[in-house]
Each structure stands twice: as C-alpha cells, then as structure tokens.
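Example record

The entry below shows one chain as it appears in the dataset: sequence first, then structure tokens.
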Amino acid sequence: MPLSRRPGTSASRPLRTAGIAALIACALGGAPTALAGVPANHVKKVDVHLLDAARAEALGAPRGAVEVEVTGTASPAYTARVDGARVLIDLGDADADPTIAPAAKTTGVVGGVLTQSSKSGDSSVTRVAISLVKSATYRVKVDGNVLRVWLLSDDDVQNELVPAAKSAPKLRDVTFVHEAAGDKVVVKLSGPVVYSSSAKGEGTSRIEIVGASVADDQLKSRDLSSQKALVTALTVAREDGQIVIEAARPTDVTAEARVDTAKDGATTLTWTFTKVPVVVRAAPENLSSKTGIGPDGGVAMKTKVIAGDPALSVAASDDSASSFLSTVPMAPQGRYTGRRIDMDFKDADIHNILRLLADVGKVNIVAADDVSGTVTIKMKNVPWDQALDIILQAKGLGVVRSGNMLRVAKADQLEKEREQAIAKKKQELELAPIETRLIPISYAHAETLASKADALKSPRGSIVVDERTNVLIVRDVAGNLDQIEALVHSLDTQTPQVLIEARIVEATSRYLRDVGIQWGGDVTFSSATGNPTGLSFPSSIGAVGGASDANTPTTGLSPTNPLVANPNFAVNLPGAVGTGAGGALGFTLGSINNILNLNVRLSAAETDGLVRIVSNPRILTLDNREASISQGTLIPFSQVSAQGVQTTFMEAKLGLKVRPHVTADGSIAMHVTLNRDEPDFNQTAANGAPTILKRLADTDLLVPDGATVVIGGIYTRNTGKNIDQVPFFGSIPIIGVLFQRRRVSDTRGELVIFLTPRIVNRAEALGK
C-alpha cells in the first residue's frame, strides 16, 4: 500500500460538504503541468465498485471500502491530494481514452468520478477527480498497470486503514536537496505511510505522517536561508503521536508531494517546492529597441518604453484608465494562463459565478451594485480567466484590474469613467507649466533627431536646433521633456565601425615535358665514289633525307659549326629546346669515303613550376556605409577609327567594395564585391597588347563578429598529351618512338577568397 491519506487540511480534520458548494467544487477540474515526453501510459477504463469481504481480503483493502480502479497500459506515476470535497489523482505522462464516461452514480462515499486529460506541448497529464458525499479516508495502491483508490467513510474507519500495515513504519532519513529547478525534501520510511499535506498560515507547508515512529535524534530544525533556496527552514517534530514536517517558504512557492514504493516495501515521500511562474507581457506600443552586450559576451536585445501619449500615459496610474470593455479580451487569443476548469450551470446567479471564479483564480472580485442577472453556461477544460472574459462579454460587463483586485461593472459605466479620467488628465496637461531643456547631441545630426522627436511634443511644445553646438532646445511640459530626452539618448549612440579584411590566395602549378627526335643521312652508289651499280641505268644511285631546309635546328650535329647547311633529316620531329629550355644531343656517322652518312639529334625539355600569390586588402567603414579600396595599373590600348589612332586605357586592379550592417545580435551582414584583375603577357592580341585575367566575387552574407569565412573559390586543371609521328612507322611497337615527338602538359590553378569582419568599437556602439 504505497499511499494512504485522509482528505482535508490535516489528518484528523474530516471533509464537509455544503449543498451546492460541493456540487460546484465537483465540477471543477484543473490541469497540472504535464511531464515532458510522449505519454508512456494510456488510461483505458475507470471503474467504481464496492468491495466485498473476500475481494477486500485478497487485495489487502479495508472491509466495506469503495474502490476506484484505474486501468492503464503501464505502471502509473501519480500524485494524490485533497481539494475540498474531492480526492484528485494526477497521473503523470499519461493520456486517457476519450470514450471513458464520467461515473455519476453514487457508490458508498463516492458521489462521482470524472476523468480528464490535458496536454501542453509534448507533455500530458490525466486527472481522476473523485467527488465525495461525506467525510472519508482513502488509500492509493499501485498493482501493476492498475491504480486502486480505496475510500472508507470516517464513520466506518474504526482503525481499519492504519492497522493494515503489520508494523508501524519508521522514519529513516529526511534529506534536503537544492536544485536550480526547485527544492526537494526527501523523506525515507521503512514501510507504507498514511499522510496528509496542508498549509499552515502564509509561507508554511506541513506534512503529517500518521502511525509512523521517529527517533529522538531526528527531531530537529534546520536553517536553510544561507543556501539561497526556496525553502528557508525545515523542522521535524512529533505531535499527538504522528510525525510532523514543516517547511518555511515564500508565498509565491508551491509544494507538491508524491510517494514511491520500493520492492522491499520501503517508501520515499518526495516533497517538491517550485516557484509560481510569473508571465511578463511587454507593452505592445511605443517601444524603442537598443542593443547591448549580454552576460555571455553575445549581444542581447534590450527594449524599453521611451514615450507614450501624454494624456494616456499619465492616466495609466489610475485604475479607471486600465479598464477594458467586454468587447476587449482579457488576454490575447491563446494567451490565457489560468487554471483549467469545467463549468455547467443553468440560470445561476452571476454573483455566485464570480465568487466561484475568484476562489479558483485566487483573486479578489468586487461587483458593482448594478451587476445582476443569471448565467447559463457549459464549458469543459477552459482557463478560468477565459471563462470570466466570455461571461463578462455575454452580460455586457467590463472589469478593472489592480493587482489581484478585479472590479466588475457595466461596460458603458467603465467606458464613461475612462473618458472622464482621460479628460481630467488632458486638462491637467494643458495647465502644466512649460519648461525649457537643452539636449546635447554627440554622434548624430541634431536636425535628424529633431524631426523624430517632433512627434512626441505636445501642441504647446517646440523644438529648436542650434547648428553650431549641435544642441536641441526643447520647450514643453516636464513629462514630454523626459520622453524626448529618453528618445534622443537612445538614438544618439556611436555608429558601429567595421573593419573588413579580405585575403585572396592564388596557387598555380605547371608541368610540361617535350621529347623529340631528328635523324637522317645520305648514301651514294656511283663510279665517282668507286661503288658503281654496274648497270647502264641506273649507273649511279643517291638517297638523302627529305626534311632538309635552312631553318631546321641542327645544333649538335657538328662540333665546329652551329648550323649544318644540309642535315638531310628523314624524320624531323624536334622538341622545343633552346636557351633556358631543355637540351639536345647530336650524332654524325659516316664512311671514310663519305659514301654513307647518318645524322641523329635527340631533343628533350621539361618544365615544372609553382606560383603562389596572396593579396590582402582591408578597409574600415561605418555601419550601413559603402566603402571601397583598389590598387592596380592602367594598360594602354590603341584603337583605329575614322578620327585616327586613339589610345584608351583598361584598368587591371585589385579592388574591395563592401557595405556592412551590424545586426542586433552583433553579427555583420554585408554585400561584398571583390575583384582581382591582372594583365597576361603570355597571351597577347594581334597588336601585342596583353589580355586581362579577371577574378570576381559578388555576394551577400552574414558573418559573426571576428569570424573568418571562405566566400568563394575556383579550382581549374588543364591537362594535355600530344603525339606527332610519321604515319605507319610511328605506330610500330617499340621502334615507333624513332618516328614520334611526345608532349605532355598539366596546369593547375586554385583561387580561394577569405573574409574577416570585425566591429572595432563594439562596446561603445552596442552598449554594455
């Protein structure tokens, strides 16, 4: 039996019902904050029945008890508490089958059972609300995937529940845990417990554990104020034979208890204290933004009210000026934050409805004398503040808020009070004395700020600009002067200065290999050389190489002459060698009488180079101002026209053009144009003018302050392989190389552009 507790504010205080008040309380249903995650438990059915003697003995339940049986798909995690004439069981991380009908039939002490599910985001909670018709005591037991709630009237208890445990549990330890999300008091006992929780006055929570024993050395008080926790003091005491644990807390801190039972029967009672969340809504109008440095070094947005309508801003201190009509919702659609309730009334007096909503919402409601009538309403699972809003709209009523005080009156009466308050404040404004104030301007132009501040002055005010000292001379009532000065000081700030540094890295590698061969010769058969053919025809034969011309390079064929007039090459496929490129080797072979001559020349050239160029332009400029920097040359070009030869210039430069904008979070958005042009004298026009190699990057980007990004890159590779050969002979394997010229080339180029923006005056421009 993991949990048993007596309803009411204390263990010995019985529940009392009072006619319609009990029925109204039974109709209410709240929705606690859901646990995070996908629901792990699905409630399939809820049954209510009386336990007979055999069934009670088998389950270990008190004889004659009423059992509320909640069946789910998993072992439930729950909390149980008493709310008026109801016992509320909240199942965390659980939803309910929508077909479960409310149990309206009275069974013993149970007058009805209502099952509701609520969901907030990804969290869901199922509440089982058990309404009672008389004072009763209850116990909760987890039996696998079934949660059993046993209830017995106080008249029939007669020590049934407490003796259910074979021995009184002992208090083992009371531990206090301080966490960022809230504080916990963990109470460990040796067995199942009977307990009740209540509030003892303002700022004190109390838990009474019935039938448990505690050692004398565990009765003590602890001061926790030095830990800066929500709980300021913790006391363990013994009163009337039961353990009492009291925790001192602020009034805006709530306490919730839950029980967990281990396999060995030991019980852990966890008492959780959390701060009630406060919803802060910003004013929807008259806001001006200003950025600043956040605590983590980032830039945080700061918003503050700097101006408002003179009459309405003064009237805001009056309750009547904060009223709203029934046609104006209490909160924007979807922004109601009150506790969710169910309401079903027919011809109920509106005063009783208002009293009920005041009790649920923990507010004070005062109704005017002319507020009357009845309300017929049926709502399910709606926030109480939304219910109040709809009821007031239906009855033509409005409400005035002042803290937790709500004054309800007819809408036209509240509208009349509002108009009177506004008229009164406007009259006070017209009679207020005029003052003169000098507002110096440091960074902006006074004329620019004067036009912006002109909308804030009253009809009696004036703004004059002194151009020499850059000062605004403002005459108006004191309230408007403060607003104008706040506006000017918010806008008169240093403009951020941004330093943009670009880095252009170029790398070019080139590889070239050229291998060629030249060979040929001559042979003669004649009587002059002493080797005639012995025939009448042909009596002499001569054969020479056919690739013979005066322009053929023959260096290396003669040790004395750089050029041989007639080398007689049969294969003339030389490599491109010469001064500073490659080499050649020549051979000359001949007979004694020069009957047979052979000339061979081998040429080969190889080039391997790497070029790396780094360009680093940088420029400093103001926020939202375009800036540019460039460096380069002007290349002249001749153009022939009807007017003659004219010389024009083409620009080849390294240039950076940028327009930065500092965002509210301290990042830098900018439009960047970056180009690098250079003349290429390796590729020229027909008249010898060089071509221009262009590299350009034009982009928009967003970069954090001080970060380096790569905004672009180009990678190129050109490879080639050429073979010049003599037909047929060049295709013969192995010996074909004697009839070929082979050329291989591989050129690679890579261009990468880096950009680094920095805010130079970050602290001064963005604020601290």
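Notes for this example: The chain is about 10% helix and 50% strand. Residues 36 and 121 are 8 Å apart (CA to CA).
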